[in-house]
Amino acid sequence: MRGVKGMREPTFLILATLAGEARHGYGIAREVHELSEGRVRLLTGTLYTALDRLVAEGLIEPDREEEVDGRLRRYYRLTAEGLAAVTAETARLRQLATAAEARLRRLRPRPAS
């Protein structure tokens, strides 16, 4: 599973965004931007290349298509494998953060008695 080795932040954010509900491309990009507190902005080409890759890897799949103002919107959803990958990556990141916090606590000066 990809989550064990770690995944790139945009991939993690796309999967995390889709954990809530199926979304179309612009909705995914908007939610990734919000979830990352503005740090990650997915450009159209980058987003759709990532979505195609995630579909090919079996982590997401098309959910449905709808036409809005003459344009086709394709919605994507997580697969069971995608849910497992984002769950594993979340646990991996939490473990790393916990280990880093423990080390940082040891570096903090102790108050004088």
UniProtKB/TrEMBL annotation:
Pfam assignment, any one: PadR
Query: InterPro entries of this UniProt entry?
Result: Metal_resp_DNA-bind_regulator, Tscrpt_reg_PadR_N, WH-like_DNA-bd_sf, WH_DNA-bd_sf
Q: What residue stretches are annotated with the Transcription regulator PadR N-terminal domain?
A: 14-86
Which branch of life, at top level?
Answer: Bacteria
Task: List, alphabetically, the SUPFAM superfamilies matched.
Answer: Winged helix' DNA-binding domain
Protein name (Swiss-Prot/TrEMBL): Transcription regulator PadR N-terminal domain-containing protein
